[in-house]
């Protein structure tokens, strides 16, 4: 969670800060790929693409696009569960958030994919406040619920993919450890008493104390979004979305002549290495995802040498992470071209007026 966003309520200055961090992530990405080209023979990588079946890239981009639409569906479901359009039970005024505007805000958040753990995607909450006056703390937990459900989906897909991996027992403990961490996070953040108690402890610390006080508005929305039934729905959608990206990776990998890899193997490779990147908390998982994917695919797939491993990794990341960055940048630029919303975002540069305490929400099913 971006401290300045919580402190200022999602102001324009914080949006600028997130954009600067995104540029840092892009720079890190360029550095990672330049280093890879220097370490490995760039001419051999280019040669491996000579007979590559390029239509596979188009299909992978299509699958990524469908995944983004499924993730937008998750965003819309979460807004509905929080009753954002209806005023969140009196927390703010009812707002007419149109579906096209909601889609624009959601896609704009993709421009923050290269921030650590994608937490920069809370940009959506800042834009929603600028556009419709919805308090930042009301929707910031949507991003957290989205990431937790993604992690659950990646763990499930990795477990499924293990069925197609020989010697799978060596990887099982690591995947189960990731699952345990996710469950602990869900229990703490989804239980108001535990989440509130954690904030009480953090409030006593010198550096993060003030931030913890400002973050108390997140407790109610977190309890709503992390209800078991809602989390199951979000995770099921994530399984389908990430599964499509796994198929996209399979299409790209097998588009290289002489490569043999099963769908299940590619499901394991893409989900497990994406999980590694997410848990590394590096910007966009840069370096962690690419490095682990390149090593594992060369070890497990038939006909994959060093150059094919690097080339296929570059291509799938281009069709997922960097494609999302491009779509997000276009959506954000379009949003900021609207004079009214741009002015509202800039007006939020200063201190935001104090928000009223969120109303008590009945958490009974």
Automatic annotation (TrEMBL):
It is a multi-pass membrane protein. Its main location: membrane. Residues 345-365 are annotated as: Disordered. This is Integral membrane protein. It comes from Plesiocystis pacifica SIR-1. Keywords: Cell membrane, Membrane, Transmembrane, Transmembrane helix. It is found in: Cell membrane. The chain crosses the membrane at residues 21-40, 52-70, 151-172, 178-203, 224-244, 250-270. Coiled coil: none annotated. One of its GO terms (cellular component) is plasma membrane.
């Amino acid at each position: 969670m971006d401290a300045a966003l919580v402190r200022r309520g999602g102001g324009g200055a914080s949006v600028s800060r997130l954009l600067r961090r995104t540029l840092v992530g892009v720079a890190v990405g360029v550095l990672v790929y330049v280093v890879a080209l220097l370490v490995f023979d760039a001419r051999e990588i280019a040669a491996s693409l000579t007979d590559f079946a390029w239509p596979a890239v188009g299909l992978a981009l299509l699958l990524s696009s469908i995944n983004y639409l499924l993730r937008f569906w998750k965003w819309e479901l979460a807004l509905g569960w929080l009753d954002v359009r209806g005023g969140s039970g009196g927390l703010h005024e009812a707002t007419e958030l149109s579906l096209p505007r909601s889609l624009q805000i959601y896609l704009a958040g993709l421009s923050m994919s290269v921030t650590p753990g994608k937490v920069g995607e809370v940009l959506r909450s800042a834009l929603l406040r600028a556009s419709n006056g919805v308090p930042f703390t009301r929707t910031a937990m949507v991003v957290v619920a989205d990431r937790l459900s993604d992690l659950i989906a990646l763990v499930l897909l990795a477990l499924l993919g293990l069925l197609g991996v020989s010697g799978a027992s060596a990887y099982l403990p690591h995947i189960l450890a990731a699952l345990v961490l996710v469950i602990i996070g869900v229990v703490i953040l989804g239980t108001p008493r535990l989440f509130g108690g954690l904030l009480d402890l953090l409030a006593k610390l010198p550096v993060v104390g003030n931030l913890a006080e400002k973050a108390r508005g997140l407790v109610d929305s977190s309890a709503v979004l992390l209800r078991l039934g809602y989390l199951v729905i979000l995770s099921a959608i994530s399984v389908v979305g990430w599964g499509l990206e796994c198929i996209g990776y399979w299409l790209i990998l097998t588009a290289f002549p002489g490569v043999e890899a099963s769908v299940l193997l590619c499901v394991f490779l893409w989900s497990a290495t994406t999980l590694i990147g997410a848990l590394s908390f590096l910007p966009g998982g840069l370096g962690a995802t690419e490095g682990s994917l390149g090593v594992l695919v060369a070890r497990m797939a038939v006909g994959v040498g060093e150059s094919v491993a690097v080339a296929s990794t570059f291509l799938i990341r281009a069709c997922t992470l960097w494609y999302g960055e491009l779509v997000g940048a276009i959506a954000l630029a379009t949003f900021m071209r609207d004079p009214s919303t741009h002015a509202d975002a800039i007006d939020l540069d200063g201190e935001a007026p104090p928000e009223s305490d969120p109303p008590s929400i009945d958490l009974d099913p």
